[in-house]
Write a structure and sequence with these properties.
101 residues, alpha/beta, 12% strand
Length: 101
Amino acid sequence: MMEDFKKTYLRLCKEYCIEPLDCILNQLNETCDGNLKKRLDLSTQSLSVDTCAVLGKVLMNDIVFAEIMLGDCMLNEEGARYLLCGLSTNTVIQTLDLKVE
């Protein structure tokens, strides 16, 4: 599951001609305990519109993450729209944190 997310993320980054974010790759490389809900913590990361577009597409069918942390990501309206479009079809994510510190 985690490997599928990573492959899709890397493929879409290549298609969009953007560099994959280390903060995402590092979290994907961590071992995941099957009994714990996995969190994707992107808090305080500056997410470009293209990065949001890629993440939105990956999150559409994601079954790995139950929690997404996006606090202080400096999202603009277009980036947020891409993310929310992807999240609107996701049935696994239970928590979305958009808090601004």
